[in-house]
Design a protein that fits this description.
Layout (H helix, E strand, L loop, with lengths): L4 H14 L3 E4 L4 H14 L3 E2 L9 E3 L13 E3 L4 H4 L4 E2 L2 H12 L7 E9 L8 E7 L2 H10 L1 E2 L1 H10 L3 E6 L9 E5 L4 E5 L4 H4 L2 H17 L2 E3 L1 E7 L5 E7 L6 H5 L11 E6 L3 E5 L5 E4 L4 E5 L9 H6 L5 E3 L2 E3 L4 E2 L11 E2 L5 E2 L13 E5 L16 E9 L9 E3 L3 H9 L2 E3 L11 E3 L12 H14 L5 E5 L19 H11 L6 E2 L4 E2 L16 H5 L4 H16 L7 H16 L7
Parallel strand pairs: 1-6, 3-19, 4-5, 4-10, 7-9, 9-11, 14-25, 25-29
Antiparallel strand pairs: 2-3, 6-7, 6-8, 10-11, 12-16, 13-14, 13-15, 16-17, 17-25, 18-24, 19-24, 20-21, 20-22, 22-23, 26-29, 27-28, 30-31
The chain binds guanosine-5'-triphosphate, sulfopyruvate and manganese (II) ion.
Length: about 600
């Protein structure tokens, strides 16, 4: 394999800093995969699961303080604080390099440094980016093997691309007081120390494909978004693609793989991606998207043959299970798996576990890692170098109250405003408190690699460059009744909302105008086969102007963070929304 001089020199320099016992370049072969699993059984990083029931599957348990992203230890290191903006943690690059160099200094003594060349995006795609990750964790290596295209294929791609993102990672001591995830967008570099957890340690994922890529996207007029991509084939055989941004643990993997309900015969849903989308304007003036990843790193609790059969089938083999119950018979179990728990096993902490103990056996953010190609409904276009054309963009989050099941925004700018102001109740995917409402613009709050106000401007600018933009919708699968039960069945039944949106894209239904946007008329939603009690549909489709006026106050408070950097367009959108709500006026048809 021809090696890139710049890559070789950089690896040498980082090895001199970290002082590993040896440096091993990964080639990405199956032989290497097996060899590393054998080795990892000895280092204790993996345990082998029952190879008859779960062929090629392994179990990993993280350090107890290292089971979710640590947003407060994640930094954007730009020359000025303004470039990182009010929603990111900032450190000056010099200070960050100094602090982290001290941590990395000698940190791999007695360990091996693995060199993982990887590609985000299909090989040969004009979208794709190369990275090289250095790590002392076999868990990271085996995850990156599935989540990216790694090894020799990436060195080959490097010959075309010429440049790569430098990704330096060490588990360190897995000490939360010595943990930093630092991004240097101007240097195209990521340094991550002290965590082995997914989004902190698999640097191709959130660090490169969102934080660094969002920075590149702004410079190069494309977009890196926290979005799933799916294809919907209707009974007539037409396939349309939808991209959807929901915050962490708010249903992207589930929507991306949904199985149509029996009462919607002829529909098929195909998965293109479940977490990240890179979007560009195509020669035809539409927005085209690729999934830069090659695998899924999905939430386990709540995942069952009932809620997400395709995910369950995807993880039947060659899968890594992290932080779930390991039963005595070397199988795995988690809450909401839809099968009886094992009588006895060990929990995510490594303690003895029985169902009678009454404590959760799996961590709420426990995850599976599996190759995307194993998903039974993977789209035949998921590796198309040009991506797929996007007809509709969805924004949505967890809102127990207020936000209706679905509404259509007026146009790109209004859609951008709605995406930028979406709120969601927090989940276990990050270490902070769960269930607290926070504004999470475009589901990118933890993932935008530069000033969020500039990101808003970028969205508005992109709108001007897309001659045939997708329609933008807002959805909420999580509205609750007074007793705290979900009003909407969700999962496969979400296709009913998608169908309405795609019909709107083809102008086949009209909906009804409200101050916040266009809602479905109850009779336009396909509810056949659903037995929703009483006034559920009404509750799902209601717009309460007084409650929305309070929401606008929350939005305006959030806007204050950005001062004069906030696009004037957003202030105007907020004013117009208030005016419409007060007048209960209808939105003019665009
Ligand atoms: P990240 O991987 O963190 O980005 O999460 P995600 O957005 O892919 O979320 P995922 O699909 O893994 O869902 C997270 C949790 O939400 C799981 O426990 C699901 O069972 C649950 N969930 C997903 N879709 C629905 C839905 O339509 N209704 C309800 N009630 N729960 C859902
Ligand atoms: C998320 O938290 O949004 C994830 C998992 O998809 S992580 O890779 O940890 O970011
Ligand atoms: Mn995610």
């Amino acid at each position: 394999m021809v090696q890139n001089d710049k890559a070789a020199a950089w690896v040498e320099e980082m090895a001199a800093l970290c002082q590993p016992d040896q440096v091993v370049w990964c080639d990405g072969s199956d032989e290497e995969k097996e060899r590393f699993y054998e080795l990892s059984l000895k280092t204790g990083e993996f345990q082998r699961l029952d190879q008859e029931k779960l062929p090629g599957c392994y179990y990993h348990r993280s350090a107890q303080n290292d089971v979710a992203r640590t947003e407060h230890l994640t930094f954007i290191c730009t020359p000025t604080e303004r470039e990182a903006g009010p929603t990111n943690n900032w450190m000056a690059p010099d200070a960050a390099y100094e602090k982290l160099r001290a941590l990395f200094n000698g940190c791999m003594k007695g360990r091996t440094m693995y060199v993982i060349p990887f590609i985000m995006g299909p090989p040969g795609s004009p979208f794709c980016e190369v990275g090289i990750q250095l790590t002392d964790s076999l868990y990271v290596v085996q995850n990156m093997r599935m989540m990216t295209r790694m090894g020799n294929v990436a060195l080959e791609q490097l010959r075309t691309n010429g440049k790569f993102t430098e990704c330096l990672h060490s588990n360190g001591e897995l000490d939360i007081d010595r943990r930093y995830i630092c991004h240097f967008p101007q240097d195209n570099r990521i340094w991550s120390f002290g965590s082995g957890y997914g989004g902190n340690a698999l640097l191709g994922k959130k660090c490169l494909s969102l934080r660094i890529a969002s920075y590149l996207g702004r410079k190069e007029q494309w977009m890196a978004e926290h979005m799933l991509i799916l294809g919907v084939e209707d009974p007539q055989g037409n396939t349309s693609y939808i991209a959807a941004a929901f915050p962490s643990a708010c249903g992207k993997t589930n929507l991306a793989m949904l199985i149509p309900p029996d009462s919607m015969p002829g529909y098929k849903v195909y998965t293109v991606g479940d977490d990240i989308a890179w979007l560009r304007v195509g020669p035809d003036g539409r927005l085209w998207a690729i999934n830069p990843e090659a695998g899924f790193f999905g939430v386990l609790p709540g995942t069952s043959m009932k809620t997400n059969p395709n995910a369950m089938l995807t993880m039947k083999k060659n899968t890594i299970f992290t932080n779930v119950v390991k039963a005595d018979d070397n199988t795995v179990w988690w809450e909401g798996m839809g099968v009886d728990p094992p009588a006895h096993g060990t929990d995510w902490k490594g303690d003895e576990w029985t169902p009678e103990r009454g404590e959760k056996g799996a961590h709420p953010n426990s995850r599976f890692t599996a190759p995307a190609a194993q998903c039974p409904v993977m789209s035949s276009h998921w590796e198309d170098p040009q991506g797929v054309p996007i007809s509709a963009i969805f924004f949505g989050g967890r809102r127990s109250h207020l936000t209706p099941l679905i509404y259509e925004t007026l146009d790109w700018n209004h859609g951008t405003f709605v995406g930028a102001t979406m709120g969601s109740e927090t989940t276990a995917a990050a270490t902070s408190a769960s269930g607290v409402l926070r504004r999470d613009p475009m589901a990118m709050l933890p993932f935008c690699g530069y000033n969020m106000a500039d990101y808003f401007h970028h969205w508005l600018e992109m709108g001007k460059r897309i001659p045939h933009p997708p329609k933008i919708f807002n959805v909420n699968w999580f509205k609750k009744d007074d007793e705290g039960n979900y009003l909407w069945p969700g999962f496969g039944d979400n296709l009913r909302a998608l169908e309405w949106a795609l019909k709107r894209c083809r102008d086949e239904v009209e909906g009804t105008e409200t101050p916040i946007g266009r809602l479905p008329r109850a009779q336009e939603l396909n509810l056949s086969g659903l037995d929703l009690p009483g006034d559920t549909v009404e509750q799902l489709l209601t717009v309460d102007p007084d409650a929305w006026l309070e929401e606008v106050e929350g939005i305006e408070e959030f806007f204050q963070k950005f001062g004069d950097d906030l696009p004037q367009e957003f202030r105007d959108q907020a004013e117009n929304l208030k005016r419409r709500l007060k007048a209960q006026e209808k939105i003019p048809v665009s």
